[in-house]
């Protein structure tokens, strides 16, 4: 019973699947199926790559947005050209200023039309000061003081302590109105006229000076405070209105300085000329962005064309 049962049991189809021959056949069949699937996948990839390489599926020419990006190198090139013109203009202005300031002094013209054309022009005039209506321009450091005993050059990095330019009404003998004279610089502790009484000139005086026109307020610069007699920049019209003078502003020359008084010669002859740096910057940006644009949209397009 047992033998016959065993024979019957071994003859069962489920157990025959577990025999070694059957397992080997199953494994071979699985490997064959995997190889077939791999072959199908490779064939699919080859067909996909062939489709991608077709000329109709490659980008045609330069995309539209690339032309918009081309405005960046174009704009930087235009800015560089503009700075070239600005540099030439600034150099002409500096040359004109230095050429004019070294002229021989002339009498102060009588009309505003003439005066408005003579910025940085030396003049000579005789008259009297009215010290009761002083205005104070600052705070600022002392400039053009090399020729004064114990003085030092001024500038943004000057070690000179802060102070103020003293603006005083002055009545020329040859006219019936006052004008504004920048007598020069005093340190902050001598801003009060009582602390420099020996420098308050009385009576008739002859002095040399330089005509100055109004200056514009720079961006982010503090505003003037006429009600507090605090002036940050040279607003000639407003200063004249407050002091009751004609809108004529003259910087006193260095030779107007007397012991105890404001130090003259405070005309700023340093005009910033940094346009060469701007020229290099803008043209460099133009070159870099032009190369990037060519490498991205021209060189890559030509390379794809050669690989077809």
From TrEMBL:
GO terms for cellular component: mitochondrial inner membrane. It is found in: Membrane; Mitochondrion inner membrane. Its main location: membrane. Keywords: Membrane, Mitochondrion, Mitochondrion inner membrane, Transmembrane, Transmembrane helix. The keyword Plastid does not apply. Probably involved in the biogenesis of the COX complex. This is SURF1-like protein. It comes from Frankliniella fusca.
């Amino acid at each position: 019973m047992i033998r016959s049962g065993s024979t019957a049991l071994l003859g069962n189809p489920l157990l025959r699947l577990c025999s070694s021959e059957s397992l080997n056949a199953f494994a071979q069949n699985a490997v064959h199926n995997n190889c077939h699937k791999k072959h199908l996948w490779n064939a699919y990839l080859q067909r996909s790559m062939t489709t991608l390489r077709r000329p109709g599926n490659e980008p045609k020419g330069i995309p539209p947005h690339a032309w918009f990006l081309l405005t960046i190198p174009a704009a930087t090139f235009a800015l560089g050209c503009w700075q070239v013109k600005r540099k030439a203009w600034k150099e002409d202005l500096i040359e004109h200023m230095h050429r004019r300031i070294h002229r021989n002094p002339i009498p102060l013209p009588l009309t505003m039309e003439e005066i408005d054309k003579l910025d940085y022009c030396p003049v000579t005039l005789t008259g009297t000061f009215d010290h009761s209506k002083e205005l104070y321009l600052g705070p600022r450091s002392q400039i053009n003081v090399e020729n004064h005993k114990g003085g030092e050059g001024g500038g943004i990095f000057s070690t000179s302590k802060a102070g103020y330019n003293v603006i005083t009404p002055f009545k020329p003998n040859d006219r019936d109105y006052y004008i504004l004279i920048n007598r020069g610089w005093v340190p902050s502790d001598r801003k009060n006229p009582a602390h420099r009484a020996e420098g308050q000139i009385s009576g008739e005086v002859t002095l040399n000076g330089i005509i100055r026109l109004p200056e514009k307020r720079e961006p982010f610069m503090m505003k003037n405070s006429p009600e507090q007699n605090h002036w940050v920049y040279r607003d000639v019209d407003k200063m004249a209105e407050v002091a009751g003078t004609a809108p004529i502003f003259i910087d006193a020359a260095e030779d107007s300085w007397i012991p105890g008084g404001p130090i003259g010669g405070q005309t700023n002859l340093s005009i910033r000329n940094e346009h060469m740096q701007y020229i290099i910057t803008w043209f460099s940006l133009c070159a870099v962005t032009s190369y990037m644009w060519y490498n991205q949209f021209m060189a890559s397009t030509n390379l794809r064309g050669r690989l077809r």
